[in-house]
Amino acid sequence: MYSLLIFDWDGTIIDSTGRIISSMQSAALEVGLNKPSEDTVREIIGLGLPEALQAMFPAITPRESDLMRERYAYHYIEGDSTPTALFPYVRETLENLRAKGYRLAVATGKNRRGLDRVLAQTELGHLFEITRCADETTSKPDPHMLHEILEQTGVAPEAAIMVGDTEFDMDMGRRAGVGRIAVSYGAHHIDRLYQYDPLLSMHHFNELEHWLTKKGDLA
């Protein structure tokens, strides 16, 4: 039934929430904006950066937005030392799914430069057939990036699954007509994701492979 698995990145593949929060807080203080709370930053994880800044700072000026983007990028890439690592079982699960014939994709709020950097750092890039980023299409929860992935892979919506940890992922998946799998260990509490009728709520990444194997699901 399912042949294409589409993954969010931050909070689903990699444990980067802590660095996103601390980098955003440091950037805001440098720019002269109010320091956002941890919960405030968690709320915007998954959005494209321009949309995230507008949501956190509704009165932000274009100059402040440009400065925030510059300082956030600095802190996230080199100024902040908060560890980021793949969640447990990610690498082996992705490799196993690819070996079994599933097609893998990424749909992320990161920009292209940021995603390419972490794909190289984690050495996971070769596993994904296609990736889409917020700065080259429309930010989540608009379904446009999923429509683009489906069109370019030639996969029907009913044969695809969106795997993510935020309401933005689930809402985007539902609007695109693809199945949803909710991740409980990411930025948004799992209770918030249930309203989007996920096929599975997974607490560890390897549960995805177990679920697909149990279903005998490869199309």
UniProtKB/TrEMBL annotation:
The keyword Hydrolase applies. InterPro entries: HAD-like_hydrolase_sf, HAD-like_sf, HAD-SF_hydro_IA, HAD_2, HAD_sf, PGP-like_dom2. Gene3D superfamilies: HAD superfamily/HAD-like (3.40.50.1000), Putative phosphatase, domain 2 (1.10.150.240). Coiled coil: none annotated. Keywords: Hydrolase. The keyword Lipid biosynthesis does not apply. One of its GO terms (molecular function) is hydrolase activity. Pfam families: HAD_2 (PF13419). This is HAD-IA family hydrolase. It comes from Neptunomonas phycophila.
